[in-house]
Write a structure and sequence with these properties.
Largest sheet: 5 strands, parallel
Bound molecules: flavin mononucleotide
Shape: globular
Mean pLDDT: 95
Number of strands: 7
């Protein structure tokens, strides 16, 4: 097997309500035009052998100001191998619905996260996520509602889903990755 042209692409993500999975599934559709993929949810006991892959995309969402600890640990444990591969990171949060806060440089969660790790992804992006007010517990619903109110966002907790994700931006990211992997 030629390890440069063959091999699979790993699509590894963490999620709470499923939006990061939905974004990764959308990316998978584009990547699969060129290579096979493994779409895997990273849980605390997930075992992944990066040597099986020719390229990697990692995605994670923000909850109360922080990306997943499980994702951070995975990166800390594997940064040396990740740095050898064509790779990308994308973050998901609702602050990124604002055009001036939707890049790795202007989205502070993502800027700080990328500065805190030794992995230097070939590409990085930030996508706006979604809110599912009726699914949250009382505390989360009211906290998010308050945060949205502060940011002049949608506070209608009766809406089943409020999706901010720019799918065209997701597709462009996937196309760009396809060209470098
Ligand atoms: C309890 C909770 C806390 C959140 N905290 C933040 C936050 O601090 N900043 C932000 O921009 N988005 C925040 N979000 C929005 C999520 O990042 C957004 O809903 C995202 O789509 C979640 O992706 P996931 O379903 O893949 O976990 C929060 C959402 C919830 C439910």
């Amino acid at each position: 097997m030629n390890s440069v042209t063959d091999g699979k692409v790993l699509l590894l993500y963490t999620t709470r309500e499923g939006q990061t999975r939905k974004i990764m599934q959308r990316i998978k559709a584009t990547i699969e035009q060129q290579a096979a993929t493994d779409l895997i949810e990273l849980l605390p006991d997930t075992k992944v052998d990066l040597t099986n892959y020719k390229a990697v995309i990692l995605g994670s969402s923000i909850r109360y100001g922080a990306y997943s600890k499980v994702m951070k640990k995975f990166i800390d444990d594997n940064y040396a191998t990740l740095n050898q591969l064509p790779s990308a990171f994308f973050g998901v949060n609702v602050v990124a619905r604002k055009p001036h806060k939707n890049s790795p440089e202007t989205n502070l969660y993502t800027k700080k996260f990328l500065a805190s790790i030794k992995w230097h992804p070939t590409m990085a992006a930030v996508f706006a996520g979604a809110l599912y007010y009726p699914q949250y517990n009382w505390l989360d619903r009211n906290m998010i509602r308050f945060i949205m109110w502060l940011g002049k966002g949608d506070t209608d907790v009766t809406k089943p889903m409020i999706e901010f994700t720019d799918w065209q931006k997701v597709d462009q990211f996937a196309e760009k990755f396809k060209a470098i992997m």
